[in-house]
């Protein structure tokens, strides 16, 4: 079985890595950290949500809408499996 194509895309891998290290992140934090366009970030998040790797929460801070993202347990397991598969590929190639 190959690498998870959803996670393997560089922008989505970066999103998953960030979310795996923190409780949650809001849209603006991810936008500034990843240096993606709003549309590009939204599309990648949408794909991660469709696979249930990321959960989206929409709330209000006062009158301002706020969207936050959190990696799900399914997403965390998929990311761990991705890293293990990448390690096995690397070891099979015996790169030194």
Task: Provide key terms for this protein.
elongated; alpha+beta; 96 residues; Arc Repressor Mutant, subunit A; 3-stranded antiparallel β-sheet
Question: CATH homologous superfamily - what is it?
Answer: Winged helix-like DNA-binding domain superfamily/Winged helix DNA-binding domain
Give the strand order of the largest sheet, numbering strands 1, 2, ... along the chain: 1-3-2
Radius of gyration: 15 Å
Q: State the CATH topology.
A: Arc Repressor Mutant, subunit A
* Termini Cα gap: 24 Å
Instruction: Output the structural class.
Output: alpha+beta
Compressed to H and E, one letter per element, the order equals: HHEHHEEH
Q: DSSP helix count?
A: 5
Write the layout of secondary structure elements.
Blueprint (H helix, E strand, L loop, with lengths): L4 H4 L1 H11 L4 E2 H8 L3 H13 L3 E8 L2 E8 L1 H21 L3
Could you please describe the fold and organization of this structure?
- This protein is an alpha+beta fold.
- It has a single domain, classed as Arc Repressor Mutant, subunit A.
- It is built from 5 helices and 3 strands; from the N terminus they run H-H-E-H-H-E-E-H.
- It starts with a helix and ends with a helix.
């Amino acid at each position: 079985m190959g690498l998870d194509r959803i996670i393997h895309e560089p922008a989505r891998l970066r999103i998953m890595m960030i979310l795996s290290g923190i409780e949650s992140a809001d849209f603006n934090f991810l936008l500034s950290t990843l240096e993606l366009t709003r549309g590009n970030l939204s599309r990648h998040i949408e794909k991660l949500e469709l696979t249930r790797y990321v959960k989206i929460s929409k709330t209000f801070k006062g009158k301002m809408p706020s969207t936050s993202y959190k990696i799900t347990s399914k997403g965390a397991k998929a990311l761990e499996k991705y890293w293990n598969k990448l390690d096995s590929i690397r070891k099979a190639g015996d790169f030194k």
